[in-house]
């Protein structure tokens, strides 16, 4: 029975573009359809920077009703609509103000695929999130359906005025161009390994549709998700267990003020607004005030204080200051270890992974050497879940040695 492949690459035109999604399509299109599908033969449908959500829905619905295995490759960026704050795949005409009308609701992916037989659907995703969505992912999964195998990565926002490259999907395509498709779990692992330090800040998606081991926690968002037109009705997915990740922009993590008093207006919203307006210094100043208040009320190594250091680390990343971000993540990791947290604790691993990622963005050799020595010491204690992290630091440090 032939398989079906849907290649979807979408991102806004203009200033709102975070990733050059369509750049991966020529590489994927060069792969034999049977290899893309993992079946003997396959029909391939390609959508490059589509304009209308209905056009995407029509193609997805047709693919979902086709017999045989279905493989969906999605490259693009995630944004939240302003009314329900639910994730959408941004399309060519999408702007922050028009997400609800011009982007493709991610809930439609789950709805269209949920009646397919278990084990017949695979999604490979290479997504970038804007700052607001990266925050949202702290407490919500990107629910793609419990019966679907989902692999890939969600990357944090790139630096200002930088358009990211869909490097995970390009790695997948390059592996497949060899003419052989390994088991999808192996394909995914090989692609992540090719990314190296670039992927240390990412949320890694593996296996079940809502599972994000060690990164994003579960929890179905409140409110009702928009349903695709004429969608078949049926039971909604079970609500997965609550939990949250140690990574990303944790602006929604605390509802109390930094002094431990009664609940007050959440400062995280003001920080997010400042970031979105490009007022990065104001955002950091506000976070610094709450960090200092948390230290006075709870102590230097308290979770309340560490929370604000993590927020400031992400703010530095968004402001394009990898040195400040790396220093902050190194400080968080060291503080957590000093407090007795185990090296394998998710929060410790996440801090070291993010320090590693930001270290890789530092261009000044002297600063990179200085922070690299600290990172190497931490990596020897916290190797993380991806093989070769410590070796990567050591090799980079050797290249950073002064020549003479």
Describe this structure in words.
This protein is of the alpha/beta class. The protein has 2 domains: 3-205, Rossmann fold; 267-400, Alpha Horseshoe (Serine Threonine Protein Phosphatase 5, Tetratricopeptide repeat). Helices cover 42% and strands 12% of the residues. The chain is built from 15 helices and 8 strands. It has helices spanning 25-29, 33-37, 53-65, 99-102, 106-113, 131-136, 167-176, 184-195, 267-276, 280-298, 303-318, 322-338, 346-359, 365-381, 389-400; strands at residues 3-10, 42-48, 70-80, 87-89, 104-105, 121-129, 149-155, 203-205. Strands 1, 2, 3, 4, 5, 6, 7 and 8 form an 8-stranded mixed β-sheet that branches. A hairpin with a 6-residue loop joins strand 3 (70-80) and strand 4 (87-89). Helix 7 (167-176) packs across helix 8 (184-195) and helix 11 packs antiparallel against helix 12. The chain is globular and about 65 Å long. Mean pLDDT is 82; it is low at 210-225 and 230-264.
């Amino acid at each position: 029975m032939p398989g079906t492949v849907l290649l979807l690459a979408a991102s806004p035109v203009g200033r709102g573009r975070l990733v050059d999604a369509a750049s991966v399509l020529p590489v994927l299109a060069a792969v034999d359809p049977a290899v893309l599908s993992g079946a003997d033969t396959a029909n391939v449908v390609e959508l490059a920077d589509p304009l209308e959500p209905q056009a995407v829905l029509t193609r997805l619905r047709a693919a979902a009703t086709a017999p045989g295995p279905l493989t969906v490759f999605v490259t693009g960026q995630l944004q939240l609509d302003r009314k329900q704050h639910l994730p959408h795949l941004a399309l060519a005409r999408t702007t922050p103000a028009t997400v609800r009308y011009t982007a493709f609701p991610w809930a439609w992916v789950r709805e269209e695929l949920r009646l397919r037989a278990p084990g017949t659907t695979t999604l490979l995703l290479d997504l970038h999130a804007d700052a607001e969505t990266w925050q949202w992912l702290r407490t919500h999964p990107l629910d793609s359906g419990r019966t679907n195998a989902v692999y890939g990565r969600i990357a944090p926002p790139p630096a200002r005025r930088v358009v990211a490259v869909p490097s995970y999907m390009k790695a997948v395509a390059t592996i497949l161009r060899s003419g052989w498709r390994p088991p999808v779990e192996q394909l995914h692992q090989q692609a992540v390994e090719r990314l190296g330090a670039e992927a240390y800040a990412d949320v890694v998606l593996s296996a079940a549709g809502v599972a994000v081991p060690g990164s994003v926690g579960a929890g179905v968002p409140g409110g009702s998700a928009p349903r695709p037109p004429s969608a078949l009705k049926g039971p909604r997915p079970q609500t997965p267990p609550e939990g949250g990740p140690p990574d990303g922009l944790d602006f929604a993590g605390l509802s109390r003020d930094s002094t431990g008093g009664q609940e007050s207006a959440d400062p995280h919203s003001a920080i997010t607004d400042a970031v979105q307006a490009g007022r990065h210094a104001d955002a950091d100043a506000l976070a610094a005030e709450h960090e200092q208040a948390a230290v006075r009320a709870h102590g230097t190594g308290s979770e309340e204080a560490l929370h604000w250091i993590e927020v400031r680390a992400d703010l530095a990343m968004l402001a394009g200051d990898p040195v400040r971000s790396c220093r902050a993540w190194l400080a968080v990791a060291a503080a957590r270890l000093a407090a007795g947290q185990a090296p394998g604790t998710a929060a410790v691993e996440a801090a070291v992974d993010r320090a590693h990622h930001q270290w890789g963005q530092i261009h000044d050799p002297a600063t990179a050497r200085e922070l690299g020595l600290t990172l190497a010491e931490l990596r020897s204690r916290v190797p993380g879940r991806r093989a070769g992290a410590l070796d990567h630091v050591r090799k980079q440090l050797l290249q950073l040695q002064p020549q003479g």
